[in-house]
Amino acid sequence: MPDQKSAIRTDAAPAPAHTFSQGVRKGPMLQVAGQGPMDPELGRYIALGDVKGQTLRTLENVRAILEAGGASVEDVIMFRVYLTAREDFAAMNEAYGEFVAEHVPSGVLPARTTVFTGLPHAEMLVEIDALAVVSEVSR
């Protein structure tokens, strides 16, 4: 049944620490839960104090969940970025730009919202979630 809702799970991204799924897919829609800069192999936050390094790790975690759900970064229509400090915007944006340039070959960039807020763990400078529409090519 193509419209059945299913949880997405991969060991290539950190396990969810709370009562939610890494991602949820229903039909062609795939929502990736907010990810942070945790290294799934080490089981700890990385690049402490380095928003660029944390952004790249966070986006790799998002990418792993997208791929586990049958999508790619190319299929993302919206990223939401949550930063703890306004002064980190330029470094985050630089890392984000490098990542999408590498993983969105069409050049049609996803939409994005950036919000400044508190995050659940003091080590986290950034959290990112994504909404994708899975294309037939990605399946």
TrEMBL record:
Ranges in a coiled coil: none
GO cellular component: a single term: cytosol
Chain intervals for the UniProt region annotation (Disordered): 1-24
Domain of life, per lineage: Bacteria
Pfam families the UniProt entry points to: Ribonuc_L-PSP (PF01042)
GO-annotated molecular function: deaminase activity
Name the record gives this protein: RidA family protein
Species this protein is from: Actinospica acidithermotolerans
